Here is the input.
Amino acid sequence: MKYLFILVFFLSFTFHAAATAVKIGVLYGNTLNEINAIQSAGHAQIYFDSLLYFSTDTSFNLKISADLDSLTIFNGESKIARCKTIKIVGDADAVTQLKHAHFKHEKFYGGELHFTSNRGFIFILNILEIENYLPGVLEAEVGANRPPEYYKVQAIICRTYTLSHLRRHEMEDFNLCDKEHCQAYKGYSKSGTEIQKGVQKTKDIVLVDNDFILITAAFHANCGGQTVNSEDVWNKKLDYLRSIKDTFCLHEKSALWTKEFSDDTWIQKMHQVSKAYKHENDSILLVQDFYFLQDARKKFYDVNINCLIPLKDMRTMLELKSTYFNAVYRNGQIILHGRGFGHGVGLCQDGAIRMSKLGYNYKSILHFYYQNVSIVNLEKLDFFKFDE
Ligand SMILES: [Zn+2]
Ligand SMILES: [Zn+2]
Here is the structure.
């Protein structure tokens, strides 16, 4: 009964979140003390400290400048207000451009934009429906020119991630930031594209485990032929993140890599990786008399069975593309022949793209990379909730 209560509470939280908007911290961590907000499409209402200042159907160009705890707003060169908060509330078609000389690319946002000063830096929230947010995530995380079916796969993954991480920035009073810390988000995404269609055709669809809990839908660029058990990277065993053999990604660009180290550098780096290695063991580090081979993925670099080094630590310290490599010693060099790119857990993007091109549908692709999961509509979860 207690379990049911927890489940019902969780589902009600999930559905509520899906039906409402998400608050995204955009240009998160910026050090800008002024920015221009320009209406690029649609109609918007502008609020200074919650008071409607004006409603516009013509284009506006506001310069917003931050001092320690407030904002000053200029229209052209003339100062029009000073306040704590500015809100731009657009209609369904409204798009606002944020402009600064330092931006390499143009930045556009739909939905609402809220501005405050964070100790002199402009702090910006973009508030919008999750289904309008996801295309901007796919644009940033996946990019253009992918097969249509693959956009459905990635839309379901990113929707699941969003709903299971709504509390990531709870302390700062928003849901997710627009950096890789959460999910990269590019802002407004043009309508009518394959990305938009991928999101729309999978509206409200998410991945859940056997307990109807949203899964950690991990993904990476290329697994090199075999994915990794979750506990080998994050110390947490999840039943749906199991190692599988994957032949779909083998012929892609990031399937193979090599990296060489001089023996001095190698020894120095290995001491950094593992404090357990003492200098009297240095000869062992050189793999001179043997090879380190991974026919299948291993968890440890096991050339010295008395000192097993987690491959995930080597990947970080040696800045390797993956943990899936063989090591050989040749002419004073340690040569690593590696496969794959990324942590290797969950869905392999290169493999999933290849499967999409071969005609597999999004359901088969998701079930191939995530074990024992269900692909469900949030509305069904809600039905389940009321059914209790
Ligand atoms: Zn974040
Ligand atoms: Zn793969």
About this structure: The CA atoms of residues 23 and 165 lie 12 Å apart. Residues 168-169, 176-177, 179, 181-182 surround zinc ion (ligand 1) (CB under 6 Å). The domain at 2-129 is CATH 2.60.200 (Tumour Suppressor Smad4).
